[in-house]
Design a protein that fits this description.
The protein is α+β, with helices and mostly antiparallel strands. α1 links the parallel β1 and β2. The relative contact order is 0.14. It is 31% helix and 21% strand. It has one domain.
């Protein structure tokens, strides 16, 4: 068992995992603590496109791509007589 570490991150969701990867890449001693067993219920499929830049910086893009997550090209919100759509294709097309 590790007796001391430089950084402890609580939660192995998208934010905690990316934070840990970025800190480790910069030479910090990191441990991530997660209460639940994996696989677990996750809401990571709702990540905003801006998050993809952090996934790339953390060196996780190949793993995310290999996992076969559905590519989201945009979003549509409708209700109370209002309609709004967002097109992510331009920013994340290759």
């Amino acid at each position: 068992m590790v007796e001391s570490v430089e950084v402890v991150i609580i939660g192995a969701g998208p934010s905690g995992t990316i934070a840990a990867a970025l800190l480790q890449r910069n030479g910090h001693d990191v441990v991530v603590l997660e209460q639940n067993e994996f696989p677990r219920f996750a809401i990571g499929e709702s990540l905003l496109p801006y998050c993809m830049e952090f996934i790339e910086q953390a060196g996780m893009m190949d793993a995310v791509t290999a996992a076969g997550f559905q590519l989201k090209n945009g979003a549509v919100f409708a209700g109370s007589g209002m309609f709004e759509s967002f097109d992510f294709h331009e920013k994340f097309s290759s």
